[in-house]
Q: What sequence folds into this?
């Protein structure tokens, strides 16, 4: 707590003045710029300023200024998002929203689902480096009507850059804790480095993005070394104003020591190799007020876990998964509003050494209406119908309303429902004596109710809200005593009460100076109603308090940002992590240095993996062109 107070005093000690534009990557989220962002992942694309749901957007400018080395670290600063890394520096991450589990949150790239039918542990093994991202959309609450199944507690859509101008970005960085290696890991100190290159070839009719990223680290503790490769392409070509085609392809490969990931302390010498690829081809056609957008996409994954990395003849698990996805989305503008309707199919397969061979298909249809009910009131109502070959039919309605009281105040409310289909690991895993699946599991079903109020006056933005979520047939891995294997069951009814608040403001100073701050707080109170006395592992790990605060300051070509996160989980001690980044602009070059975990906190986010101690980083970014 003393470290948290020290950080807050440091934040408060900087005088409050506001922002103006400068040549540095600017973390300030200018209101006019944000209002122009189109929420891409929605069935009906919506300007941010017209959104009827609580959607948070983080832009490329903000990403560049954050003290973050990976997408995982960027997301850790977003209100309500819980990042639980088993390996640091982007190796493996579980991600959840508003106290849900990692299986209940959906991640997408340009609207294409990264859902992994084997396990959510691999969903964040994605091919997009930070420099290729235009913005990130975070939608909270049950979102089946918007994204289909498994968006039970929310969804995160990563939108990549598209530009009519050609650009090049090159980033090279390295870092270390300057601590010696543990016994058995060789001599020297722990450290690592990364490089990424992103180029966009743009013109009036096309935008072609190519990106390559590579990171290598010898770890931060014994057997925690990692090597990550990312390749990504995204292209758009306009035949004319009414017809266009889009393509996307990516490949991600990670190889890392898995000490403490799943079965500590016995897995001290384990390692994991994960590969995934994604491909998408879509088009968009407009005839007057009617738009049609077909898409075909595929995501393939390989997961090779080696309990004994020196002896792969035993304790080895190999999984191959594939999901072919077909979609047809459409919209029609009418006098009463914009209708959206469409269909999607997802064909899943797995071939695994300890899960077996399985297939299942999922088909969904949706209808939605977005309308201005009056000058101040707007609403969206929709219905998603789902059929799964293993679990049958289900319907998921939803309603969002937003009322603008005046120029400064807006209130909003939403009711949404959703479903989470059990993963193949939940159903069929046979990993005795450690874990065993349950083929009798039923899907989780959720209802989410939320209300919030928002105030905006100049550069000051405030939002606060309350939500209540109820999940029936909640799934958790449990066991009666240490002599029996863990197994998932439909534990009962999981309820969640949550309150949240966010505030940000930017000020201008004379002499080309700017200053701003952001503060967010989330409080979660979960409970499980069950007829069994088995204690829920999920409840023990659920996030209870999350406070994220930060300030940024710039003068001429120099800027800095400090971010502080204070988190506490159920029945666990709170921890405080402060990160700092300094930037200096020299023509087309940006020189930066970072210190993460400034106060050298000791903490764990997942499994039995201690996160890195104080870490020092140094990097340079070269940028050519304007996008």
A:
């Amino acid at each position: 707590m003393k470290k948290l107070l020290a950080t807050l005093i440091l934040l408060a000690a900087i005088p409050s003045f506001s922002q103006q534009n400068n040549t540095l990557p600017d973390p300030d989220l200018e209101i006019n710029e944000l209002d122009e962002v189109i929420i891409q992942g929605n069935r009906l694309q919506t300007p941010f300023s017209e959104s009827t749901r609580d959607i948070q957007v983080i832009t490329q400018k903000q990403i560049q200024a954050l003290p973050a080395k990976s997408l995982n670290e960027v997301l850790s600063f977003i209100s309500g998002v819980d990042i639980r890394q088993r390996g640091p520096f982007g190796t493996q991450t579980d991600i959840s929203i508003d106290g849900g589990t990692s299986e209940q949150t959906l991640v997408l790239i340009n609207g294409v689902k990264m859902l992994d039918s084997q396990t959510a542990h691999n969903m964040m093994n994605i091919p997009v480096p930070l420099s290729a991202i235009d913005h990130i959309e975070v939608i909270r609450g049950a979102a089946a009507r918007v994204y289909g199944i498994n968006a039970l507690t929310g969804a995160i859509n990563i939108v990549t850059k598209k530009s009519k101008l050609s650009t090049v970005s090159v980033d090279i960085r390295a870092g270390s804790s300057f601590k010696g290696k543990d016994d058995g890991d060789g001599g020297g100190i722990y450290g690592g480095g990364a490089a990424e290159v992103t180029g966009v070839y743009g013109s009036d009719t096309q935008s072609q993005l190519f990106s390559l990223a590579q990171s290598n680290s010898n770890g931060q503790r014994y057997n925690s070394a990692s090597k990550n490769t990312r390749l990504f392409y995204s292209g758009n070509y306009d035949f004319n104003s009414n017809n266009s085609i889009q393509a996307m392809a990516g490949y991600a490969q990670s190889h890392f020591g898995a000490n403490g990931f799943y079965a500590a302390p016995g897995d001290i010498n384990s390692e994991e190799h994960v590969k995934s690829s994604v491909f998408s081809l879509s088009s968009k056609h407009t005839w007057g007020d009617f738009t049609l957008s077909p898409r075909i996409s595929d995501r393939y994954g390989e997961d090779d876990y080696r309990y004994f990395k020196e002896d792969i003849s035993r304790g080895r698990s190999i999984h191959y998964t594939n999901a072919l996805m077909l979609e047809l989305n459409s919209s029609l503008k009418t006098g009463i509003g914009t209708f959206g309707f469409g269909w999607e199919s997802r064909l899943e397969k797995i071939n695994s050494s300890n899960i077996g061979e399985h297939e299942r298909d999922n088909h969904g249809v949706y209808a939605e209406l977005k309308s201005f009910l009056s000058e101040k009131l707007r609403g969206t109502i929709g219905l998603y119908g789902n059929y799964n070959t293993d679990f049958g039919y289900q319907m998921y309605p939803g309603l969002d309303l937003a009322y603008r009281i005046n120029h400064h105040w807006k209130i909003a409310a939403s009711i949404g429902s959703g479903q989470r289909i059990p993963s193949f690991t939940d159903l069929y895993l046979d990993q005795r004596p450690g874990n065993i699946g349950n083929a009798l599991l039923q899907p989780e079903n959720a209802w989410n109710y939320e209300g919030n109020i928002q105030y905006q006056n100049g550069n000051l933005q405030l939002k606060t809200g309350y939500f209540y979520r109820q999940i029936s047939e909640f799934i958790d891995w449990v066991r009666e005593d240490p002599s029996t294997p863990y197994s998932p069951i439909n534990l009962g009814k999981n309820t969640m009460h949550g309150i949240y608040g966010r505030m940000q403001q930017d000020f201008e100073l004379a002499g080309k100076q700017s200053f701003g701050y952001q503060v967010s707080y989330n409080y979660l109170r979960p409970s499980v109603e069950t007829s069994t006395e088995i204690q829920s592992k999920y409840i023990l790990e659920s996030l209870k308090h999350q406070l994220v605060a930060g300030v940024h300051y710039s003068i001429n070509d120099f800027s800095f940002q400090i971010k502080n996160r204070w988190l506490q989980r159920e029945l666990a001690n709170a921890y405080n992590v402060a990160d700092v980044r300094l930037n200096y602009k020299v023509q087309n070059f940006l020189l930066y240095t970072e210190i993460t975990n400034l106060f050298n906190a000791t903490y764990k986010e997942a499994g039995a993996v201690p996160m890195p101690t104080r870490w020092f980083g140094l990097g340079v970014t070269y940028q050519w062109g304007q996008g």
